[in-house]
Fold these 2 entries.
Entry 1:
Amino acid sequence: MMSKPCDQLPLFADGDLPLAESQAFGRHLADCAHCQTELTRHLQLDQMGRRYLERHGPITIPWHAMPRNRWFAAGAALVAVALGVLLGVGGVGRRVSSPEPALWAGTSRTLEARVTYPGADQYRRPAQALMGGGTPSATASRPLTVMSELERRGDLSQLVAAYLTAGPPEPKNAKDLLARMQAERQGDPADVLSDMGAAYYASAKTQDPAWALRELREALRLLHQALVLKPTHLQAHWNRALVYRDLGLPLLAIQDLEAVEAQETNPAWRTEAREKRVKLADVTTRQQRWEAANSAGAELVARGAQALDEAMRYADVPMMRRDFYHAVRSRTSREDVLALLPLAEALDSKAGQQTVLADYLRSVANRDFSRRAPLAEAYGRWAMGTVEPSGKEPLLRTFLASNEDDITLGALVMFSPRGPDSEYAEKLITLGNSNPDPWFKVLALQERADRSRQKDRYELALSDLRQALELCTQEHLVYRCTEVRNDLAYVSGWLFQLQEAERFAREGLTQSRLGQWEQERMLLQALGSVARMAADVTLGRAYFGEALLMGGGKELARNIHENLAHLAIKALELDVARDEINQALATGLPLTQHGVAALADIARTRRAAGDVEAVQQGLASDAPVTEGQHAFVKSLQGRFLLEADPAQGHALLVDAIEQATRAAAAASGAGWTDITAQHARAYGFTSLIFDNARRGDFATALARFGNELGFDTPGNCVLGLTEDTERQLLVGRGADGQLLKRYMPTRTKRMPVDMTDVVPPDMVEALRPCASVDVLARPPLQGRSGLLPADMAWRYRALAVARQPPVGRGTHLVVNEVRYAEQRNETPLRWTARITPDEDLMTLTDLAATPSRVLAEMPKASEVDLATHGKVAPGPKSTYLLLAPETNGSDMLTEELIRKMKLPKAPLVILAACEAARGTTALHELGSLPNAFLAAGARGVVAATLPIPDEDSSVFFGNVRDRLRAGSPLGTAVRDERQQWLQRSASHSWVNGVLVFE
């Protein structure tokens, strides 16, 4: 039988005890282990219930069964706070820093990362499950009374450590407390950042791989910041080593562990650091095996059967098939060719019980070696690198005149460069397609894709590469598939399909680790490029840094340092950028166009002797092919020269814009997109706008905002904003046409995602009388909330003229109550559409609401409501709409798919989806879901940058539609409805994130 106080636990938990009895029960709770255990169970059930509601939505509970005041529903942290205040026992007068023995009495730890609280950072061996890579079980506990006492006395550092290390990690609670410490400026900033990194690292262990990567990215960023503040921070070095290891970057992890070993005084911590470093040093075994295989392949080419035994040892290394082809082509007799049959059969077996290589070998053995032998000998000299560059083309001509197609094909692959219209490229494609070996069919598709890429036909290149990937996967051609995935990552990245680019690069990296050290380094650079385009500076530096540590020649070092210079530019670390471009130049190789672009940015504030020559050499080394490429070269020249020779720089930029505009229009008319021309045009306008601002000619600068979009900038009620490395500009005209300006030639931070208070008060007041403000935000600034106050009507404007739907009866398409893929674990959104009598309703719900069906129905609609979940991809930040899965599993409506469609009825599109207005990091175009709909033909889009409450969305957006039908402009309708909701309740702050795009 329970004692009377224990019987009061349910009433206490529900907050139903009178104050005096609650205080009495609190004193009992402090000493009653049974009640502490039972209250913990209550809390765990409550947490489970909240997770259920988050995933599946609310459930109906009878009124008489509802507790009146479940004060602990906010979670364990709030209970601890309340208990600490209520009890007032056990901690009065203690110093905040005194460690609680009950928390740190365990003999093993459940968190591999380290925290900065000294009591928690005493060495304890890793739990057994932790050593095996599984989820650790509790080896210590967090007594409720102790946790409440820590909260009561404000010992947040120890409380964070307890949530992370005293029992199974609870990273969510730790993150919340650390955010509070940052806000209140408690603790050493480097310690707080290191512990925050540890919390994100712990969180990654509980996530699926895609989302775990997101947590590791954030952990890496935080730990990098900690080490910037304190380069010798021991725990940050330890934790960053773990993050690097889990990201697959062992060489960087080893560097951090070496830093720990050098500083650590505790022998146990030092021993574990050394053990981790030694384990990671196995990466050198991978390198050594690749080097041995590479050497065996070279010997096979040089010596044939005499080197066969060593080559056979590495038949499982994917590049051995490549070297096999060279070896066969280099043999000068039938007997030498047939001697390689064991390797051919072994390689065939690796590709899945085929006879392709054995058949090829026998075919070559039957050739007339009285004619073939001299050609084979010459081919062997080329393959072994002993043919002078000047002798390669004449030798290739000799091969082309022969009938030894395999030798000719091999020489064509080795011959570089092959221009897009070269007869050599065409011959390679022809021979590859006619060859029965799928290896060469894949090569032909890669060559065709490369020819398209050189002409800026990236969509065509992507199509050929997807076909190549399908073929090489089907035929188990690992080496070729790795190369294809690298090509796909490059082309997808140039198309700014960053999520796809990262996926291809990551898949390629996994394949390359089957023994392809050189390809592994190549794919790390591909991942670094994706991170750079996504403006993820920390992750980009990590990938490029690992690739640099893997070694390589001057060309690799130059390319990596050019990319690191761009990353430093994004971080506004221009001294670092200057150093990186200097290291690129120190290789002695000319810069690429990519490097010249970085130097043009750096030289504005950190010009050095020799920069002019470096730019000239760099641009001369990569000849342009298309009109768009010629325009891009001019834009780089003009950007670099603008301050040193203003007249010439200005003329080059104007010419570049005109040429790029023509090239982009011609490509669009032919049904494709000239992305290089887009870059040239965008960067040209950027340079001219800021040059006008630098000279104080703000009226011309503002006029260029409209010129770029294809219309005359309005004479009043307009605001333009742009940024470019170290400078930013806001310029506009107020209600009376007065010029407004705020130019910042040097800055230390980029414009924030939440633009509240970015526009100075005097500019806001000048715009306030406007009925509506046109905001001309250049990429990547469009789609950010808070730019103007909530009581003002404004819109992001991207179109020259207003579009109107056709006169007559329209169709209103509604997509709602989507049945998502089961693994998505998402609840369908409810939505009530406002339909007028002159509209026909078309509804897509349940499993019918697939991306293909939605894309098929939207061109018929004059009004579109998309009530579904908006999602931000876990990798490079891009937003998509989640829909029902197709038969192939695809369930994402992406910006890329929307831009390809045509909307002839100019619909108004309502995106009732969380964060659907989020923009991309693209600098050459206005990137976002709303802009994709505008590009497809929508007359306007309403979307949000914030999470939208399901129950409120259809009411809010329905009321906006009613206001439009009553004659209000779109921006005014959204403003007026927003004001009503904010006046009703401050909890409706999400309406501040609803933006208008027209």
Entry 2:
Amino acid sequence: MRLLTTTALATAIALPAMAADGELTVFDWAGFEEPSIFQAYVDQHGDSPTYAFYGDDDEAFQKLASGFKADVAHPCSQMVSKYRDAGLIEPWDTSKIPNFDKLAPEFLASDVFKDDEGVWYIPTDWGAVGIAYNTETVTAEDVASLQVFVNPDFAGRTSLPDSADDVWALAYLATGTTDWDDVTDEEFDKAAAWLREAHQNVAAYWADPSEQAQLMASGAVDVAWSWNDGVVYLQADDYPVGFQREATEGSSTFFCGFVNLKDGPGNEDKAYDFINAWLEPSAGKALLDTIGYGHTSTEAMATIADEPAVAEGLSDIDVPILAQTPNDPAQREKQLAEFEKIKAGF
């Protein structure tokens, strides 16, 4: 059963849960240790890297900043400036990454990722955030609007991610802000008030997609703000799940990738072998089947363009999209602090 397998792995978050090739340690989200995604590395070295897992981006950063050692980490785009400012990462040598020029240019369109000092980030995967819902207990009309999360009819039946970026993307969209690059104090306050109201309906905040899927599969939750992978896990267990990305107010997108950690304990050449395996076109199908995400490589995406899962969870849609791209670090910290207050009931 996919849900139980993934949940079991997730319980080992932030611990070296999968010891394999001792010369490369990957600090990652649970679920990405599926060998088919980096099959070329396994073929070359005979084993997967050693994996350590974390539950959210801020947790991963704090652990690495506190001295945890790994060779590469897998943050989402909003975090890269924090890694750079803290001096935790060094540029990649793209001459060692043959498929680097196959990356879709929009994923590197920021000085945070690529500047005169080098390439600090290799974007690898992207996904959507929308409303996952039980199609047997929740109607399409119920989830036509993001206001389902503050609808009193769903008190105690919703779940939100324990991720400041995702919940603020939801709150901004629900209150009419579709770009978080230049948020006014009024927009922030309006979104915070909405998020406090949504908090009253929350049965649980999920720490990882397998937990979100388990909450829904158990019947504890009928509506969740979800990444693609939570939906994929539920579909694998034949749960009656819908994925609403076209709510009136819109939905969100994000992308993630790998950073090269300074003073990693392992073999630097193997870090490049790992990245090159991720950027093979064949990784696109494996990533889609395992996690439900899209690939940043144009060649990899071309191999899965006609897959039903792309049409369902990754296709272009005609509603506002809040793209979770790097925003003002001070604003992000303000959102993080306010989210902690909201979860605590303040």
